[in-house]
Structures are given as structure tokens and as C-alpha cells.
Amino acid sequence: MIFGGLQKFSLIDYPGELAALVFTVGCNFRCPYCHNPELVYGTARKIDESYVLSFLKRRVGKLTGVSVTGGEPTLHGAQLVNFVEKVRSMGFKVKLDTNGSNPELIKHMIGQKLLNYIAMDIKAPLNKYRLLTKSNIDEKQIEKSIAIIMNSNIEYEFRTTVVKGLLTQKDIENILKIIEGARLYCIQNFSKTKTLDTHYLNRESFGKNELSELKKLCDRYVKQCVIR
Question: Is the pTM of this model over 0.90?
Fold first, then answer.
């Protein structure tokens, strides 16, 4: 398996763990505000799996977790499963970041006890998914992934990046209705550092008061909501 990046240490990406981050290459979505265009388009510097595993072997007993993010990791199918099996065999906990477009693989990895934590991005209410992701995603796949994750016995979170003018408060409420009762929902405010569509560098982020109102709304539907 070839990766597009390795962050050797993080205190914030994997809750409660000292983690390394590995970034997979490629994505089936084209969200215009995405901050990892080099991973989406495959132009990132390539890192071989053997290098990643060698690094992790030296960090056994020092790091406790590995977060697999992207891009979209589940595009790599059996290669992803094989890599995670190797990481788990070293004693690391594994967190997977996913857009939820491959529910069968998510179900398989949870069933095989390969994952300790899963974070799924919910891009929009279902009726806006194709418009926002600029893809032909079957929205039912997103619903399946949500159900699989919520009915699993592992830690999880759902999260949505909010961009002013792209998602409204009503859109967020429609998302919340799908994940009602979820353990954790994260609102991620749009940051204009780097975007797939450079026009989005001119978009506005939500203000503190607007985010506060969104959190009040979220608190009615989920067990915990945080603003990031």
C-alpha cells in the first residue's frame, strides 16, 4: 500500500491516544472546501507501506494509536485491511476516518475487530449529497454506514464541516435527524488555509455566535456536540 503522508505524532486527532497519522491517496468525492487536494488528486509525495511499518515498529510502547485518514481510506479495500491487521498486531489501537461511502468494508473491519474508533464525515443532508460532493454517490450507502457505526460497540463520532452559504441551519438539523441519539457529533468550522476549489478561499467561516446556535440545536439531538 502506498501512502500520501505520515504525521509522526498527534495529541488531538485520536481522542485519548498518542497517535501517528497515515494519509491514504485518492478520494471518490470532490468536496470543494477539502483541505487535502494533493491527496484527492494523488499528487502528494508517496510513502511506501514498509517505511510506515518500520517507523511504527520503532514507536511500540511510545505511541498508543494510529489514525488512518485520507483521502478516503476505504477505496483501498483489501490493502487497507491488510495494513490495519499489521498495525493491530503491533499492539496499536486504530482509528479510521471515512466518508462512509463503503459500508460493507466498514462493517467487515468492525466485525473483524480491526477498529477501535471510527470517525465518519457527514457532508450534507442526504438530498444534497451529490451536489455537495460532486459525485454519483448512492445516498443509501451513507445511511447504511451511519447505521452500522451507531449499532457497533466501538467508539465513534460523526462530523460535518460547515461552510457559510453551503450548509444552512436547516441542513444541519436534517443531518441531526439521521444521527439522532449519536454519542458524539462534531461541527468543524471551515478554515481557508487550502481548498480543492480555490474559489472557496474567498468563502466566510461561521462566527462564534452562529456556531453557538448550531451547538444548541445539536444538543437537542445527540448525546454530545463539540465545535472544532
Answer: yes
